[in-house]
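Encoded backbone
================
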Amino acid sequence: MKKYFLATILATLFASTSFAQEMHSDIEFGFEDPANPVFEIELDEVTDEGIQVAEGSFVRAGSFATTDAPGFITPVSDTENLTVRVGEQVFVRVLDASAADSPTTRGVGYVNFYNPTSDSLENLDSTNGTVDITGSGNSVSVFAGDQLISGDEEVLLATGSDGTTMSNVPPSLGEANVVLGPGEIHNHLAFDLSGSLATTDGAIGLLLQFTTIPADGSAPVESDPYFLIFNNGLEEEVFETDALAAFGLVEEILGDVNGDGVVDFGDIPAFIALLQSGGFAEAADVNGDGLVNFDDIPGFINILTNA
C-alpha cells in the first residue's frame, strides 16, 4: 500500500505576487515512508464528510484576481521524513466534485462557487470565466462549471530535487528559486481568475488531489482528495462561517467537546477524557493556549454555567 503525508506548516511565510504581498501558511507534503509511501492528509480543518480543507484568498487588481497561497513545501527537518523521492514528478489534479466517485455530496463540478446571495454552491457556465492554474511547465484552465477547457486536469507542481538543482517556482510570481536538498520541494502554483468570476464576490472551492509519476517507473501514487477553498471579496466573517459551512466545514463551538452542536453537561465526560489522555480538541481549549489541561477548567465551567 502506498500513501503520502500532507500537513499544514506552522510557520507563517510571505509570498510575493505581481500585485500584492500576502501572508499565508504553506502546505507540507511528501512521503511519510519513502520505502513504503502512503499518502495521508492532516490539515487543520475537515468537513463533516471527512474531507481535509486548506484555505486561501485571492488578491484583486481591477478585472483580474490572482493568488499563489497556500504554497506547497516539503519539511526542512529530516526527522519529519516527508521528502519526495529524487526525480519524482509531483502533480496536483483537479477533480470533478460532482462525479459519482467524488467523496463529497455537496460538490457541483470542477469549480464550486459559493454564492452569498443564495447561500449555496453553484455550477456556473463558461460565460462566467475560468480558473487558470499555472505550475512548473504547464497550466490548466477550468470552467466555472463542470469541464476543463484546455490542457490536462493535472498541473505539474515540481520534480524531486537532487540537491544541486533549484525548486521550480513559476517565474510569473516573482519568487526567487531556492536550492534545496535531496527530495525537497518548495513551490507555488499560480491561481488566476478571468472573466466576471474575478470580480464576483464569493468563495471558490477546488477539489484537489496529489498524484506522482515516480522516476523508477513504478505505479503512480495518489492522495485522498482535499478541498482548497479561496475567498474572493467576502467579508472574513462571511467566508469563515457561511461560505465554509456550504462546503460542510462547521465552526467549532467553544465548550462543545462532544460535537453535538450544543454546550451542556453532556460535554463533561468528553472534557474529562481529554484531560486524562492529554489529547486535544479545539472546543476544549477554552483559554486558547493550544493545550487542553487543568488551566482550561475554570473557563469550561464558566461556559457550562452560562450556556
In short: Residues 111 and 144 are 5 Å apart (CA to CA).
